[in-house]
Design brief:
This protein is of the alpha/beta class. It has one domain: Rossmann fold, CATH 3.40.50. The chain contains six helices and six strands, in the order βααβααβαββαβ. The strands form two sheets. A four-stranded parallel β-sheet has the order 1-6-5-2. Helix 1 (11-21) packs across helix 2 (26-37) and helix 2 (26-37) crosses helix 4.
Length: 165
């Protein structure tokens, strides 16, 4: 997983404003933060944003990970495959769950709709607490043949601190 910054102010504030206050312009700043973690970018074929569940995307009106990926692709010059991976069921918000419950919450939640045979892909998300969501998404991509799956996030909380809004 590629990450440079802890989930603390000002990155934390930008993530929360993007997700919960509809400040979509912050996706560009968060993409720059993610790009900083890729100082030596891996050789990849595409970016794959972590999808939201159907109800959450309808409620929010956008997917923050897709917005970040759309900005990040400018510096990496690879396509964004934003309809290859789906979250076919709504899951509980990870922020509200314990570490163990986060892993259980996303088991089997993702499906890759396309053949990914031999592809090297980089998952894109805003924040990773336990890595459970990223791992569940990576499994779905590997089941469809992805050769390598990495992940880049804008921030990650220190291991000794829980993720809280």
């Amino acid at each position: 997983m590629f990450v440079r910054y802890p989930y603390e102010t000002p990155v934390r504030d930008a993530i929360l404003r993007l997700k919960f206050r509809n400040k979509r312009y912050l996706a560009g700043a968060l993409a720059r933060v993610a790009a900083e973690a890729l100082s030596d970018p891996p050789d990849i074929d595409a970016l794959v944003p972590i999808p939201l569940g159907p109800a959450r995307e309808r409620e929010r009106g956008f997917n923050q990970s897709a917005l970040i990926a759309a900005q990040l692709t400018r510096s990496l010059a690879v396509p964004v495959l934003d309809r290859h991976l789906i979250r076919h069921r709504d899951t509980f918000p990870q922020m509200s769950l314990t570490r163990e419950a986060r892993w259980r919450n996303v088991i089997g939640a993702f499906t890759c709709l396309h053949n990914m045979s031999g592809a090297r892909v980089l998952l894109v998300d805003d924040v990773a607490a336990t890595g459970a969501t990223l791992e569940a998404a990576a499994r779905a991509l590997r089941r469809r043949g992805a050769r390598w799956v990495g992940a880049v996030v804008a921030a990650r909380p220190p291991p000794d601190r829980p993720l809280a809004p």
